Amino acid sequence: MNTSSPQKSYSQKAYLGSYPYNLVKSGNLEKYYKLLTNFDFIQAKISHPAFGTQALINDCDLINDPELLTNSEYNPEKTKSLKLIQGTLLLSAHILAEDVTQLAGQLWGRLCSFELPEIHALLESALGSQTTWLRPLTPSLTPPGGWLLRTLTGHESAINAVAVTPSSLLVISASDDTTLKVWSLATGEEKFTLTGHQSSVSAVAVTPDSNRVISSSYDKTLKIWNLATGEEILTLTGHLDAIETVAVTPNGKQVISGSWDNTLKVWDLATGEEIYTLTGHRDWVNTVAMFPDNNRAISGSKDKTIKVWDLETGEEFFTLTGHESSVSAVAVTNDGKYLVSSSSDRTLKLWNLETGLSLFTFTGHNSSFSTLAVTPDGKQVISNSGDKTLKVLNLENGESFFTLQGHSSYVNAVAVTPDGKMAISGSDDKTLKLWNLATRESSLFSPIGHNSYVNAVVLTKDGKLAISASDDKTLKLWNLQTVEHISTLRDNSFHRINAVAVTPNGKLAIYASENKTIKVWSLKAEKELFVFKGHTNVVTSVAIASDGRLVISGSADNTLKIWDLKTKTEIFTLAGHQDWVTAVAITSDRQLVISGSRDNTLKIWDLKTKAEIFTLVGHEDWITAIALTPDNKLVISASVDNTLKVWDLQMGKLILTLTGHTDSVNAVAIASHTKLMISGSSDKTLKVWDFSRGKVIATFTGDGMLQCCAVAADKMEIVVGDEFGVVHFLRLEEMLKSKK
User: Fold this and answer.
1) Which residue of 14, 194, 369, 566 has the smallest Cβ count within 10 Å?
2) In what order do the strands lie in the sheet with 539-544?
3) Closest to 647 in 3D by CA, of 678, 687, 603
């Protein structure tokens, strides 16, 4: 980086650290704006071991000083640009902490839709900053300024519960990895990890003074922790089965726990002694919450009921019935007048606690509710569900305000900050997400793509057209040169599309359907021409021979079928796999077919003799995708075991195992005429490999699990589909530079 004036009087560390602060304090806002929108400075500060992303986020916060509003150099438009950069860094902080080389790609993916001079200049300067990186050609990542603020990573398994201290300084998360983690709400920093439980930590509660944390676990114990030191204070035992839930009275004197032994227990927080056992539920106790008067608790059970308890006598006040399945969560408004409950019956109910009547029922989620939280003003409830979303509901009229989408798996927990401005969610995807409840701007963000999982993408041979297929039962056609949507083809039978292939002449699309068929569409006429029928289960995969005549399909019936596209008939069936056939490919000379299966193997078949030549064994889990090198010498397989394997197709031998992904590898594609390969994974990363050396040369991280990918070799333009329906268009910048 150029360190000429004005930074020449500083060491690099002093320049990176104190220079922004000095500029603001001296009132030199013009230089401050210029510095904080300079890509080289941003990259240097994030990369420096003494600073990192949070230090740069703090630099951006300097502009919030009210005194600066009267400064003659204060510029609202430049301040807006600075806030957008700060928001991008917040959203990408967990990615940059692992891989700072993704800075340029993250900036492009989140900011390229903003028409501001400083943003444009920043992105343009990023183009020449790295030798190898993946540039989004469209704004396909969540932009700053919306609902999602940041993501916290660190747990090794699902997050079951979250809590916020009354001081709003800390967030505590509980996980299946048997630990709790304590995080700074302001910086996202992990303060420390609480270890001691022998099984999943199911719930967590914080005392009103923010000094202690109480956790419950499937190991049948509760633990009380010192939040300042992270030390364990007490372990409470007495339940006969796993403990599912825990709450603290508003005065901080008692703890109430609910268990799979069908009981609740009331404990003295100071001594750890059991005061009462509350009996009455006929099945697991899933949830417990406190009334603001300290004298009552409320519980929900797998027995479909809600019970209100007198904590002074240990007796039951009354029971509420109305849910048709297990009650998963309960919460009481701060005035103690209303109760909100959620259930496995996919409903949320608002109850009047004075009359015991249900006021309304909400049915907005597509899966069972997990937990819920009520905002301090009692006007909104945030619910989470197995459908991977959170919903913010207006309690005054029972209408959904908006949906928060970003998690990649079940959302198990949600908490709201005491000021009601922020929600924190925890998920099976091992992450916490922080949400801004005050904004509505994110509703304007609509990345191009589908309404659900993108299961397949394919390019025409000339590289001009991309086709994507989705769970939303549509095919979409894209102009790869302009990155524009051309048209949408909808299957009139309304079945999800699992895979798609296109004939070499680019005229026909052949796709595999969940209704056991393979359909042939004219791309020009945008209509179905005919259907191949014969499989007895879902068709999972499809490939087309280089002559455009043979079609190969794989199915959940464990077979492959070879079809003649000209005569519209089945030629023969290949059987031998012990589980679903999940991927198929055919060599360009039409001699060999390769199949991958849920039986963890690949099979090489001779098309002429209709016989199996090799079975390739080595993966530890099922095969998700396969690709062939242009010379037909190598086959690359992707697997749920997080690896890719390179095989010698002639010898049937394993050559190389590629590791680097941290979750299932779902897709693989090879760039013809190069030594590069692309893989997409459930770990949300796309990796570009020099597979001859087994080396990753570039990585891009998306917002969701990446399901499929394709590459146009001549331009190194890559098309990727993800779980949220987004179609990403990326370009490997190094390849462009090497051709200049």
Assistant:
1) 566
2) 539-544, 550-555, 559-564, 569-575
3) 603
Dump the DSSP string for 546-562: TTS-EEEEEETTSEEEE
DSSP E strands, 107-211: 134-136, 148-153, 159-164, 170-175, 180-184, 190-194, 201-206
Q: Which of 65, 64, 48, 68 is nearest to 56 (CA)?
A: 48
Q: How far apart are the first and last CA of the chain?
A: 24
Query: Between 739 and 681, whose confidence is greater?
Result: 681
Of 36, 27, 31, the C-alpha closest to 68 is 27
Reported as type and span, the H/E element at residue 418 is none
346 in Cβ contact with 383 (< 8 Å): no
- For residue 359, give both structure tokens: 């006021």
> At residue 386, what are phi and psi to the nearest 5 degrees?
-70, -10
For β-strands 508-513 and 517-522, DSSP reports them as antiparallel
pTM above 0.90, yes or no: yes
| Range name among 2-11, 121-130, 356-365, 474-483 with the lowest pLDDT average | 2-11
Report the alpha-carbon distance of residue 700 to residue 538 in Å, rounded.
32
* CA distance linking residue 318 with residue 315, whole number of Å: 9
Cis check for the bond before 166: say yes or no (omega within 30 of 0): no
> Is residue 170 predicted with pLDDT exceeding 70?
yes
Query: Which residues lie across from 222 on neighbouring strands?
Result: 216, 236
In whole angstroms, give the CA distance from residue 136 to residue 331: 43
Higher pLDDT, 4 or 302: 302
The 3-state secondary structure of 468-505 reads EEECCCEEEEEECCCCEEEEEEECCCCCCEEEEEECCC
Q: What is the pLDDT of residues 302-361, one digit of tens each?
A: 999 999 999 999 999 999 999 999 999 999 999 999 999 999 999 999 999 999 999 989
Six-digit token string for 338: 């209303």
Q: In what order do the strands lie in the sheet with 380-385?
A: 369-374, 380-385, 389-394, 399-405
Task: Report d(CA 450, CA 725) in Å as an integer.
Answer: 4
In the chain the domains, ranked by start, together with CATH numbers, are: 7-136 (no CATH), 454-739 (2.130.10.10)
Residue range 635-641: mean pLDDT, rounded = 98
Q: How far apart are CA 577 and CA 172, in angstroms?
A: 47
Q: What is the pLDDT of residues 107-119, one digit of tens each?
A: 999 999 999 999 9
Q: Which residue has the tokens 């990727």?
A: 720
Instruction: Note the Cα 270 to chain centre separation in Å.
Output: 40
- The DSSP string of 525-540 is TTEEEEEEE--SS-EE
Residue 165 parent element (H or E)? none
